[in-house]
Amino acid sequence: MLFSMFHPLGVASILSFIGVSFTMVVNRDAALDRKRIMDKCSGTPQEVYLNAGQDVVLQNPGFESGEFIEGCTTLYEVMMDRDDQDLGQWRIKVVMEEMNLPCSSSSLWLLEDGERTHNVQYCNEKKAETVFYSHEHMIDIKFKNKAKCLEEGGCAGTKVQMRISAEYVCGGR
Predict the structure, then answer these.
(1) 3-state secondary structure (DSSP) of residue 57
(2) Is a pLDDT exceeding 90 seen at residue 70?
């Protein structure tokens, strides 16, 4: 008999082999999650198209875990997708559903270029209206965490969730 299963070295070898395999899988999954988050945090614009009657919920990276991701910048370009024959007036409605953004470390900006430029900042100490209405059919939403958390108690629980929809105003029906 070359190797007994009850031999102390044999059992240790099997357990160590199983432990290494399991650890590698867990680390790989964590690395993939981190890569997905960092892709979202790169500041590269992500396009969001709205159709009539559609709601889109956007959350900052780290929302579910409440993790503060240092240096994270997320940019959404929100556009209304309408039929060329639609003569109705539409606007984009943004509702802040949940927000915990310490101004010293995080903020959210709603940016609209148009006849009148709108730059509205959202963070805890600068409570803007919870509902924003666009004047154009395109807005940018920018979420940004600073490179370091500057809060004394830490930045755990930093998060924002908003609901975006295309809202009919008048005409064309």
Answers:
(1) strand
(2) yes
